[in-house]
């Protein structure tokens, strides 16, 4: 594609060099640049791409987009200065990859909890309906039935557009993706056209990046503010921020709720560790999911499917066929009658949701033993809150290591324990080694008890000092249960 075509809708400050040259690829990582590529220098949170302009040119870049023109400039290289290079990565990537969202219907899911479940279930539902579909999620990306590994909730704009371009090329009619607050704030979804957006809920998370809850909320809201008039916006009005999200959107607003008046309503008729019987807008349906938070997730899926033109009866049939997402309230039962639950809950609110569900099902007939930790190099303020909620809703708690990253596991555990008083500490044991912590909890449990292993869910690794070591909560539990 010609450079001038890539830059046609970009506001330029200065252009030095020839715009009439062929561009064979677009990159923001100088290490991935090849001959004929365009390199976009972005000032990131960790590194500044402007420091790697010469490296990109050494690797074959024939054009550079930047905010600050380098003092040393190379003959034959076109330099394009813009006011904010981060903002233009998305539009350039969208143009380079053929504007994929003009060829498929893209639906984004945002909120603190439930994004992965809702996006994945919509993808699975529309596969059941017979459509070619794509998925972009925390757990795994899919193009139809082909799994593709993923590193971020929402990839960088170039990776994302390349993925969406492949989906469009392979005939996908729909794509469903998680939209993180980071992706909005960092313009990763710039240039994409969304056919719809879904809001799940909003609780404390990512304040290490956003600094304040208001900034975090406003990043989510900006996604809905940008939806076009012909899109839909499905929002959870059980959350106090549900109406805030859509107050300035041009999209067609639909609401869902378990507690108040809304376009789509649901309630639990029966529940057990095997599943639930629900009433959704006056129709009964049996599902293989557990917990009221999953009722809300399923209702969001139902609402979005209806907003996309599906009939209620076919949606309910598809919901009855769906199965839980990997690492989201997955149950493993021992021969002795102990139920272990693996869940990704890594925020105070998510932990409360899972523990409330477990307690509602047990109804005091067994004890709840919780294993949890907190991630390193992330929001430290939620660590004592996690411990407090675990103790409040459990009979016994094992505080352990999660993904310590570059922090010392014991320091993270100490931060969690700092939120507990002497009475609360009587319920708590600290075991740094995660495998031993899970083993301790399982050995404590008696028939009829439930062991919640929270925080990692689908992850099959522990991130320690920059290295990802294999670790899977499911495997550890099955080994302890002798399965």
What is this entry, summarized?
The protein is α/β, with parallel strands linked by helices.
Which descriptors would you attach to this protein?
483 residues, alpha/beta, Udp-n-acetylmuramoylalanyl-d-glutamate--2,6- Diaminopimelate Ligase, Chain: A, domain 1, UDP-N-acetylmuramoyl-L-alanine:D-glutamate ligase, Protein-Tyrosine Phosphatase, Chain A, 3 domains, eleven-stranded mixed beta sheet, six-stranded mixed beta sheet, 17 helices, 33% helix
| Overall SS class | alpha/beta
User: Uncertain runs with pLDDT below 50, 5 residues or more?
Assistant: none
Largest sheet descriptor: 11 strands, mixed
Domain module count: 3
CATH superfamily of the largest domain: Mur-like, catalytic domain
At the fold tier of CATH, the topology name of the largest domain is UDP-N-acetylmuramoyl-L-alanine:D-glutamate ligase
Overall strand count? 24
Helix run count: 17
Average pLDDT reading: 94
